[in-house]
Amino acid sequence: MRKAILMALCVISSCASAQMVLQADSAALQPQIGRDENGFSSCGVRGVVIVSRAQYWDAYDFSAMVRLDLPYGMLKAGKSRTPAQEAVKGKFSTKSVVPPPVNFWFAQENEGKPLTPIKTIPAETKGYILELANIGDTLRGILAMIHGERMQFAIRYKNEPADVVVAFAAQMPDYERAPLMKCIKEVGNRMAKLAINK
């Protein structure tokens, strides 16, 4: 009898501590490329991921970027929410949910360790969080996303007791991925030259 009770408690405990994983209804990626007078200066990817529920649809909007002038990766995230009856008519809200999230992370679905922030800084865009992260890990995450690997992310708000994890995969067309890969390579080369010249 004691063993049966112990087993039941273990099952309940593991269920209570597990995070819910939602499958995205749709996901799209957009390259982000910046230039200065000497060439490519910033590269990244923006993701817009939609998850539908009975009462509302959430449109998660996040980006990951590397910049020549910053020794960190930069992450930005927020979402908008549309009542389901409006969303099915194609009338989506463009207003970001406020206050902004308190945390954002993402990871390749088959890897345990997510890309988490080193520091959170105020975002100029209302309803968004801005984070600094390890630059190498940010770059690996960008490459995984744009090559169509399955990813998971969570954008957590203050009133949420646990992360709601969203899983997605999206294909970036070759004509968008090619210039982004060129940008990543050139920014890396420029960073290496700057490091040598210091």
Give the structure's gist in a few sentences.
The protein contains four helices and ten strands; from the N terminus they run H-E-E-E-E-E-H-E-E-E-H-E-E-H.
Mean pLDDT: 91
Count helical runs. Answer: 4
Major sheet details = 6 strands, antiparallel
The general outline is globular
Distance between the termini: 70 Å
Helical/strand content category: alpha+beta
Strand percent estimate:
35-45%
- Residues in helices, as a percent range: 25-40%
Unreliable spans = 3-16
Element-level helix/strand string: HEEEEEHEEEHEEH
What topology, given as strand order, has the largest sheet? 2-3-4-5-8-7
Count of individual beta strands: 10
- Rounded to an integer, what's the Rg over CA atoms? 19 Å
What is the topology?
Layout: H1 2-17, E1 20-23, E2 26-36, E3 39-52, E4 56-67, E5 73-83, H2 84-87, E6 103-108, E7 119-121, E8 129-133, H3 135-146, E9 151-156, E10 164-168, H4 174-197
Parallel strand pairs: 1-10
Antiparallel strand pairs: 2-3, 3-4, 4-5, 5-8, 6-9, 7-8, 9-10
